[in-house]
Amino acid sequence: MKFPILSLGRRYPIWAAVLLLYAVTALVSPAMLSPGQILNIVRVTAFLGMVATGQTIVLLTGGIDLSVAGIVTLTNILSTGMMLGANENIAVAVLACVAAATVVGLANGVLVAYFRIAPIIATLAMNSILFGVALVSTGGAPHGAAAPAFNTIAQGDILGFPASGVCWLGVSVAVAIVMKNTIFGRWIYAVGANARAAALMGVPVRIVVVAAYALSALLAMCGGLLVTAYIGNPSLGIGNPFMMTSVVAVVVGGTALSGGVGSVVTTIAGALFITELNSFTNIAQVSTGAQFVIQGVLIAASVVVYRLLGRQSRT
Amino acid sequence: MKNDVAVHPSVDALALQGIDKSFPSVKALQGVSFSCHPGEVHALLGENGAGKSTLMRIIAGVWQPDAGQIFVRGKLEYIAGPRQAHDLGIAMVHQDTRLVPDLDVARNIWLGREPGHAGLIDVARMQQDARALLDQLGFPVNVERFVRDLSVAERQVVEIARALTAKPAVLILDEPTSALDAAEIERLFAIVRHLKAQGTAIIFISHRLPEVFAIADRITVLKDGEAVGTVDRDAVSHDSLVAMMVGRAVSLTYPQRAAAPGKVRLSVRNMSCGRKFSDISFDVRAGEILGFGGIQGNGQADVPRALFGLDKWAGEVTLDDKVLALGTPAKAIACGLVYVSGDRHGEGLFLPHGIRENISVPHLPRWARFGFIPATAERQAADRAIERFSVKTPHRDQRVGNLSGGNQQKVVLGRWTSEHPSVYFFEEPTRGVDIASKLEIYRQIRTLASEGAGVVVVSSDLMELIGLSDRILVFSQGRIADELSGKDATEERIVGSAVGAGNDGEELAVAAIQQPIAPAQALRSPFLARYGSSLLLTALLIVLVASTAATSDFFLTAPNLSNVAMQVAPLALAALGQFLVILLGGIDLSVGPTISLVTAAISYVAVSEGGLQLAAAVAVALAIGLAVGALNALLVVRLRIPDLIATLSTYSVVFGLALIVRPSPGGLVSDLYVDVVSYEVWGIPMATVVVVLLFALAEFLLLRGRVGQRLYAAGSSPESSYVVGISTWRVQTAAYLFCSLCAAMAGLIITARIGSGDPQAGSAFTLASVTAVVVGGASVFGGRGTAVGTLLGAIAVGIMQNALNLMHVSAYYQYIWTGLLTLVAVAAYSLNNSTHE
Q1: By the number of CB atoms within 10 A of the CB, which of A33, A279, B230, B586 ranks highest?
Q2: SS3 for B225?
Q3: Is the pTM of this model over 0.90?
């Protein structure tokens, strides 16, 4: 209690880490202290944050969704390819993305819940298929562009706040409320903690799992739309980093891979942390390779740290 | 050793003094002393939960005592693990058999001490000895059958045979008769007498008095973790023994029985369910507690599970004279039925969640308004349950994982009292629960009944069954063998009915035991069981080759085939490593980046012409492989991070390193390097030959090597492996090291193929290696698969790639079909497996 940061660190370690990393970054680069920079972090975090929110839902059921990378790429290719830079095409393009993501998410869920394929293999294979579809449909050279009006959702502001951040935080808070206070959310937690017990208590386990993967795909698609609106162009490699970072953000946020433990709110912090880390490594002029190394170490370290913290709180 | 003992019969074969053992929530043993002479059958008697199994696991080295001493042949010993116990001549037959389902009978019997040389197993001798042992036991089971296809009784015999391979001085039989019928029990007793005559000290655990009187020389009674006393069989009467055992009953007062049960609530008519039970009819009245008794596994526990939709069944069920539409747990709950499983942790609780959330799960659909849960109602329900069952907890949001066993069980039961269901089914409601909680639970169950509900209690604790029930149905061989009122019930009568004393019963028993054996034996030859999927894959490959050859003249030419062979080699190598990890039930995602890192590093080393550079390149690759493997092993085995997240983390680190070493493709490797790696004899790439030889060696070792045994055992059942003294962490470490080494060598070949370094060169290999393994028929849950299958899987992927190239299909399609192929292979495997079960 004497040191607020310590007690925050014990109860919500990821929020303490977010603050700490921000302070360190600001020390290295005082420009980070400007409100504009903070808002920019929020704007950019929105892409990952959206995808990670969906990933959280799946991890809470005890699964994993590695196909988010493919979904982001496919959304990018599909939306730019259909918009072709014209505002009147936005609605059709977005609808097509929603349809595609729904199909992919349902397929993932059915493969895991009904065909009993291990989630990692099902979604890894699905990711490969989606990437292949993106390559084949564009012949490796995608063309098209996002519409100007569409770009404002990532580049514009609402009341001085980045629009993408508003979308992301709005969706995250909504999902958080659903997870904590609705029957569906409780079912997700129950299935993740003990699927057999959940089934005996009348929880429709398979349907819950399918819904979780469908939601993950839809949220990954939302992330894909936001990032597309931000860069405005099609890019085949755009989704690749999300496979790792979405899992890292969730795990760093404290959601357990074993399922049933964690929350969407801490994933918000996890996503912020990863983005801060990226901007820090950019400022420090660390290479892409080193960023991957740091991410990898972070994943393993956070699992160990949370285990130690959990042990401490229990005794 | 044994002669030694016979000379000094006064020395105890085994003696325990003052053994204490506690678990987080219970004190399992307190100051227990116990001894057993050579050539003696010493029965250990006690109720469920008295501490018998805990004591035996301590003797067998599975657990270590908190305090107390163990003497073996008069010498103080510390038994640190199963391996030490075995070396001391102590063998144990576990009640829940510890066999490896994916190994055959002979291999299970000799697991951990197979005959043969240092590295290889003498299979012929192993089978011959196993056969001799089983013949000696009077159960000629085919030693080449897989244990997963055996009946429960057969498994028990295999387990006994395994214990005998150690020629033990002390043999522990932990409730060996629970799955046997009367005739089999007699044969088992004959074996026990035979061993006894040879001077073996036998500890016989049971809670069935007649058996104990039939076989034991001395009897020690355990009660609530303490030894009540040791007596000679001839000096003790049945009644006095019962008094010792159930002395507890004096302090344990059961609630008053129902004066007069009300009208019939639940009525079940002619209910049948496959082999589990048939023709079950019974009524449950309001206010009545109906007990289901019998030896475990005779159908009594399956009836409520079937009603809850966990099994398909036929028959008619009415509640308050209305026919019920059942079929899923949700429907049963909606009808007003409640089922509380006896497997508290596995099927009852959400351990990481709070009491409140645990209690509300089944009620949510009724509580919810537009999908939202009313917080006040939920809190009140939780508080009611906590108060009613006097759950000891600081807070309603306390994690149930932190509660004691008794309090956990109260939460499980309290969950259902917030509503008013019509009929309750409780399975083993007081298993692993302390006395005070037991009393509380009995009182609550009786209260539920007196409030007008019908209650069914399935229990293997006879005293509990008799004390609690108004009426008892005894199950035997899936039928109701007897019905008696709680007042008149005795342990003897229940046991007598349960083992089916009449001739009819015995015939039934024999029929039931022989039934599952016949079709299984007829269906599966050991060769087909192992290579069935490989044969199927070979057939598919032939079709693939033939159809490709028909469309492309170039396909079957020597240059193309040599090209395919060179293409398959790195994939096959990576897949072989991945296969071993998957065989252990894990996965290694870092295969792809490891390959990339090797190509990136080699592109700096193998640049100038000269043999030294060549050797350096190989050394660098192997060093990278070892380092990555060691990192994976460290994370998975030492830090116990789940394999998926651990290798994902390694994936990121290694990929990052590859990017640091070589941010973009480049660096020309020397011609010498390329020439050496792609060296061909008569158009056959030598690298491919080496890889194929490696596979042949792997398959041979999997079949005949000790290492193969350990891999299958650890992958199929880590716990069984531990019990026979296999160190699973060593096996795991070795597998991760091997996997990364394979990936590193695959990287060497790929560098020669592309002639330069590329940080993305391996990116497709993570999935492709998994694809090859699963297409080759290995189970992703571990324990099943062959090296041959994996090689065929890799060849299939390689040929497909080549065929599509020849048909001028865009290389981009590769991503799509690898993904689809993986999904189809895994789905086919999982569906095929679920139909077998």
Answers
A1: B586
A2: coil
A3: no
* Contact pairs from chain A to chain B, CB under 8 Å: 215
Closest by CA position to B587, among listed B805, B803, B826, B357? B826
∠ Cα B573 B578 B584 (to 5°): 140
**pLDDT band, very low/low/confident/very high, at B517 (cuts 50, 70, 90):** very low
Distances (CA, A) of A172 to A296, B218, B423, B450, B701: 25, 68, 42, 49, 53
Residue B238 neighbours by CB under 8 Å, 6+ apart? B209, B213
Read off the pLDDT of residues B552-600 as tens digits, 9 standing for 90 and up. Answer: 888 888 888 888 888 899 999 999 999 999 998 888 999 999 999 999 9
> What's the ipTM?
0.85
Chain B, window 327-386: residues with a beta carbon less than 8 angstroms from a chain A beta carbon: 328-330, 332-334, 339, 341, 346-353, 357, 360-362, 364-365, 368, 371-373, 375
Is residue A113 assigned to a domain? yes
Confirm whether A181 is domain-assigned. yes
- The CATH number linked to A165 is 1.10.3470
pLDDT class for A311, splitting at 50, 70, 90?
A: low
Q: Return the residue in B373, B376, B589, B648 with the most chain A beta carbons within 10 A, the one to mutate for interface testing.
A: B648
In a domain? residue A9: no
Is A243 near chain B, with CB under 8 Å?
no
Domain count, chain A: 1
Q: How far is CA B755 from CA B511, B671, B765, in A?
A: 68, 8, 18
Instruction: Enumerate the residues of chain B whose CB falls inside 8 A of the CB of residue A122.
Output: 823, 826
CA angle (A17, A242, A101) in 5-degree steps: 130
For Cα atoms B295, B297, B300, give the angle at the middle one, nearest 5 degrees: 80
Query: For residue A109, is it within any domain?
Result: yes
Cβ of A244 and B648 within 8 Å?
yes
Nearest CB to A292 within list B328, B371, B659:
B659
Res B264: pLDDT? 86
